[in-house]
Specification:
The protein contains 26 helices and 31 strands. The chain has 845 residues and is of the alpha+beta class. It has 4 domains: 143 residues, Sandwich (Immunoglobulin-like), CATH 2.60.40; 132 residues, Orthogonal Bundle (Neutral Protease, domain 2), CATH 1.10.390.10; 108 residues, Sandwich (Immunoglobulin-like); 278 residues, Peptidase M1, alanyl aminopeptidase, C-terminal domain (Zincin-like fold, Alpha Horseshoe). The longest helix has 22 residues. The model has no long low-confidence stretch (mean pLDDT 98). It binds (3S)-3-amino-4-(1H-indol-3-yl)butanoic acid and zinc ion. It is an enzyme of class 3 (hydrolase).
Length: 845
């Protein structure tokens, strides 16, 4: 496989005007007829280069005549000398086999339906085409099928028995092409846009799933309205279709007018879905819808610019979810996720720039860094320039680049133009990997407080020397009486070391630093117990209140693990006070009660220069759970009763109460031998509580009967069964996890070809830190065995799951050597895919 470099970008030799495609669908012999009008690119003339993989070419003509052409396993090339002058029409007929396409890229079949996934480079598995995002064409598609529903992008144009035609007036790159055909039912609605146009909305699902669409449809309507109200962006077709597909490598795909969703990210009902699922569905529907402007109308010039659409769209979906629910709670959840996924990536062998400079397989760069750090960059930009300039800049970007394929430079330029600022230094966030460490000291004299910040970023693979980043550090100052003397203030740090002074202060205030997590850094602050307790009680920034509690919990666990010190009353009392404070949102209190994950503790220990012992981490975290259960025993039953949300509604209020109730139940179960959890398991009318009760029981080492009855109740529902597989592995004791996972791979409902099921088992195994790092190395071996089996079928999912091994350098010599052995075994597998080869090679370093 070849490495592709950003610096080598060159425009294509040919642009596309129009594309006509006809699909005669058949499981093993689909015919695809294409008619493409090309025009030469006068700025870069040359051969006609078309991508194509796994295609059987039946015919190729230019302007109606057969043409001399070269064909390799990846291209069809027509020499410039053999091309007519000026525009020409290329026609081809190819045959493909969707039924045997297990990679789920291109045209494939899932549960009897035809569907496509073309991002990033899947269109080349459908027909010969310049499959690159800067080539945009107007598509007309005819589908011929035995199945009743036939969909493609854009607006429906005509249809008859066994055929349908679609026309998409908006020029688009091939990665946004989509086609679906199946025996599907639609859950339908309408939306009237800000200019009064009516848009038909449909969510297409398999029979039996039609009662799980209402929430998704409402989320779509809310997203459409929000994008009009907040960004002024209106939808631009007569119809917006969503299709739920069971076999899908990622969450969803924003194809123009025809979003395709992993069914786990669109279907939701109270009985079968947890609050977390409802929240995810709402967020992903919004994300894919928002791509219509940030990604589709304005797309990426090349795949190195992926963060241009993904970082911005994640930022937009985060803002939306904050507006729909609670900004404070959402921000804490975002940071938890960022630290768990992106910091982990940024501090290991897979660290890369938000805009990478090279790749072998672009699918390996749909990462937390591109998505989540990409979103953090947008948040920082907004904080630095202010809300008004942010929206002005966005509007300028939309106006200036509508219909274009652009770069990060184009995005930044819009903000330079509206603010008059030079954002060159800020733009370095896209080209420097690694998480900055930020430390701070304070000095106080004569009514002046000086904060001195120092930043440094550790080396990452291929980038030894790091420069200071531009950091918006939001702070607040609080007087000893608890009043805020300096409200939210953004300090703009650009140097390695920089001081900021606040004058005319009557008394020395307490500083609240990095409010709302205003920059994606690791804050290293020596903070004494008194200051921390003060901030816990008085900080007006909810993120920092949570953060103080988090630090207390982490320090407590680290001291238990490394020194055998029992928890201090500081921590226990603070937690009790917080939990009992009914002025605080239950969702927020639930987040305060949740202990840091084992993986988080392992990284914290490693950062502090200690080799983490996964067994000690597991045992001490369990010990702390027992200590909390006992210390809080007088308030737990009451908290449990008071947070009964009543009839299920998947809104912020109900889900917040249930989150607190389930977190409480998990501790309560350690005190009452599972009585409350068993009762709830039997009586719950919603999955949040049923699964919450089951998890509480399993986490306490009981609940096998309930696990069996859960199976008996839900074996027919594939999404609930994913939970059944996942839960028992996720909470298994370290020495049992690999064994349980292995047994489950023999279960008749285990299907390695279904990415959701594969992830339910092996995602849960790698997420069970103690179990994955059990001393015998059984989990390492089991995962490697299955990655080797999956790779020939589905390289994309295999490569992604290799990330389980990315933290190997944290651990002791024995574990390092066991992991390396498995990685080398994977790498030594004959015919290993390029995707997996690239990932394993990078992880090994
Ligand atoms: N833009 C979509 C990315 C995506 C994808 C990428 C590679 C392989 C399969 C895929 N399915 C979807 C999803 C998104 O970010 O909106
Ligand atoms: Zn996206």
């Amino acid at each position: 496989p070849q490495t592709i470099f950003l610096k080598d970008y060159a425009e294509p030799h040919h642009w596309v005007d129009t594309v006509h495609l006809t699909f005669k669908l058949a499981p093993r012999a689909t015919r695809v007829m294409s008619k493409i009008v090309f025009k030469p690119n006068e700025a870069n003339t040359g051969d006609l280069i078309l991508n194509g993989e796994d295609l059987t070419l039946l015919s190729a003509r230019i302007n109606g005549a057969a043409i001399p052409h070269e064909q390799t396993d990846r291209h069809l090339i027509v020499k410039q000398a053999d091309l007519p002058d000026g525009p020409f029409t290329f026609e081809a007929e190819v045959e493909i086999s969707p039924e045997t396409n297990t990679a789920l890229e291109g045209l494939y079949m899932s549960s009897g339906m035809y569907c496509t996934q073309c991002e990033a480079e899947g269109f080349r598995k459908i027909t010969y085409y310049p499959d690159r995002p800067d080539v945009m064409g107007v598509f007309t598609v005819r589908v011929e099928s035995d199945l009743p529903v036939m969909l493609s992008n854009g607006n429906p144009q005509a249809s008859g028995e066994g055929w349908a035609e679609w026309h998409d007036p908006w020029p688009k790159p091939a990665y946004l092409f989509a086609l679906v055909s199946g025996d599907l039912l639609a859950h339908s609605g309408q939306f009237t846009t800000m200019s009064g146009k009516t848009v038909d909305l449909n969510i297409y699902v398999r029979k039996g799933d039609e009662d799980k669409c209402a929430f998704g449809l409402q989320a779509l309507i809310d997203s459409m309205r929000w994008d009009e109200q907040v960004y002024g962006r209106e939808y631009d077709l007569d119809i917006f279709n969503i299709v739920a597909v069971d076999d899908f490598n990622m969450g969803a795909m924003e194809n123009k007018g025809l979003n395709i969703f992993n069914s786990s990210c669109v279907l939701a009902s109270a009985e079968t879905s947890t609050d977390a699922t409802f929240e995810r569905v709402e967020g992903i529907i919004a994300h894919e819808y928002f791509h219509n402007w940030t990604g589709n109308r304005i797309t990426c010039r090349d795949w190195f610019q992926l963060c241009l659409k993904e970082g911005l769209t994640v930022y937009r979906d985060q803002m939306f979810s904050g507006d729909m629910r609670s900004h404070a709670v959402k921000r804490i959840e975002e940071v938890l996720q960022l630290r768990a996924r992106q910091f982990r990536e940024d501090n290991g062998p897979l660290a890369h720039n938000v805009r990478p400079e090279s790749f072998v397989e672009i699918n390996n760069f749909y990462t937390a860094t591109v998505y989540e750090k990409g979103a953090e960059i947008i948040g920082m930009l907004r904080r630095l320039i202010g809300d008004e300039a942010y929206y002005k800049g966005c509007n300028l970007y939309f106006e200036r680049h509508d219909g274009q394929a652009v770069t990060i430079e184009d995005w930044i330029k819009a903000f330079e133009d509206v603010t008059g600022r030079d954002l060159t230094h800020f733009q370095q966030w896209y080209s420097q990997a690694g998480t900055p460490r930020l430390s701070v000291t304070e000095s106080w004299a004569d009514g002046s407080l000086t904060l001195t910040f120092t930043q440094s970023t550790p080396p990452t693979p291929g980038q030894d020397d790091k420069r200071p980043q531009v950091l918006p550090i939001m702070i607040g100052l609080i007087a000893p009486d608890g009043s805020e003397v300096v409200p939210n203030t953004v300090l703009e740090m650009t140097e390695s070391t920089q001081s900021f002074t606040f004058d005319n202060l009557a008394e020395r205030p307490v500083t609240s630093i990095l409010r709302d997590f205003s920059a994606p850094v690791i804050l290293q602050r020596d903070i004494d117990a008194k200051t921390r307790a003060f901030l816990l009680a008085h900080d007006t920034d909810p993120f920092n209140v949570w953060e103080m509690g988090r630090m207390l919990a982490k320090d407590t666990l680290v001291a238990m693990i490394t020194e055998g010190t029992p928890p201090t009353t500081d921590y226990l009392d603070a937690l009790k006070t917080m939990l009992s404070d009914e002025t605080k949102d239950p969702a927020f209190r639930a987040l305060c009660l949740a202990l840091p994950s084992q993986d988080d503790i392992a990284q914290t220990l490693f950062d502090a220069g200690t080799t983490p012992d996964p067994m000690a981490i597991y045992e001490q975290r369990e010990e702390l759970r027992h200590i909390l259960a006992s210390f809080l025993q007088d308030i737990l039953p009451d908290l449990y009763d008071k947070n009964d949300a009543g009839a299920f509604k998947p809104d912020a209020e109900g889900s917040g109460k249930r989150a607190l109730r389930m977190a409480v139940l998990s501790l309560l179960t350690l005190n009452d031998q599972g009585k409350a959890a068993q009762k709830l398991f039997e009586t719950a009318d919603n999955m949040t509580e049923q699964a919450g009760a089951l998890m509480a029981l399993l986490s306490a080492g009981i609940g096998q009967e309930e696990l069996a009855s859960f199976y008996a109740q839900w074996f027919h529902d594939r999404l609930v069964m994913d939970k059944w597989f996942m839960m028992q592995i996720a909470v298994a004791a370290p020495l049992e996890a690999a064994h349980i996972a292995q047994n489950l791979t023999h279960h008749s409902d285990f299907d390695m070809k279904n990415p959701n099921r594969f992830r339910a088992v092996f995602g849960a195994l790698q997420g069970n830190h103690g179990g994955f790092h059990a001393p015998d190395g059984a989990a390492y071996k089991l995962l490697a065995d299955w990655l080797i089996k999956l790779d020939p079928l589905n390289p994309q999912t295999t490569a992604r799951m290799c990330g389980a091994f990315e933290t190997w350098k944290r651990y002791d010599a024995d574990r390092q050597s066991m992991i390396k052995d498995q990685l080398k075994r994977i790498l030594g597998t004959p015919n290993l895919s390029g995707d997996t080869t690239e990932m394993v090679t990078r992880i090994l370093g």
